[in-house]
Amino acid sequence: MKRNLLLIGFVVSLSVNLAVAFTVAYHWWTRSETRLEPRRFIPEDLEKRLTERQLQEIEEMRRSTLARAQELRVALHERREALMEELRGAEPDQEKIDEILGDINRMQLELEKEVIRNLLRMKEVLPPQQRERVLDMMRERLRAPKEWRRPKLPVPDRLEGR
């Protein structure tokens, strides 16, 4: 009887562990597949209206921009790690922290400039109507999520009469 209970407990435990392992593996696999899909650089409906030459030029721009952006992201990560190491120290050096923050700011600025340079190059390739569609799409992507926006605060009663 005792042996049967142990066997049943073992089988139940094994099946639960396998179910958890397969679930975790499934979610990891499906999430990694979606990460591998490139994000649409231009809207699909607009892409259908572009010539082959325009598509090739835009794809080349996308590749060069993404390559440069990746370099900057890696460098940013390294500088942020250096900042965290400095902050973890017993006596963080304020001058070194300021230097690292300056490096991070310069890299972020360079990343923004790279995006803007790419948009300017795209403007040369696209006709005005298509240009506007791409700029509208970029505006949507860059818009801050609603939860980041400042809520409108009510005006206190004493200030309304002024």
Plain-language structure description:
The protein has 162 residues and is mainly alpha-helical. Helices cover 78% and strands 0% of the residues. The protein has six helices and no strands. Helix 3 (52-88) runs antiparallel to helix 4.
Please name the defining characteristics of this protein:
162 residues, mainly alpha, Four Helix Bundle (Hemerythrin (Met), subunit A), 6 helices
Topology of this protein?
Layout: H1 2-36, H2 44-47, H3 52-88, H4 94-125, H5 128-142, H6 157-160
Offer a quick outline of the entry.
With 162 residues, the chain is mainly alpha-helical. 78% of the residues lie in helices and 0% in strands. The chain contains six helices and no strands.
Instruction: Output the CATH class name of the domain at 40-139.
Output: Mainly Alpha
Euclidean distance between termini CA atoms: 86 Å
Q: Strand content of the residues, in percent?
A: under 5%
List how many beta strands DSSP finds.
Answer: 0
The largest sheet is: none
Q: What fold name stands as the CATH topology of the domain at 40-139? A: Four Helix Bundle (Hemerythrin (Met), subunit A)
Order of helices and strands: HHHHHH
Low-pLDDT sequence parts: 33-38
CATH architecture designation of the domain at 40-139: Up-down Bundle
Helix content: over 70%
**Radius of gyration over all CA atoms, rounded:** 26 Å
Tally of helical runs: 6
Apparent shape = extended
Question: Which structural category do the helix and sheet elements fall into?
Answer: mainly alpha
Nearest-integer average pLDDT: 79
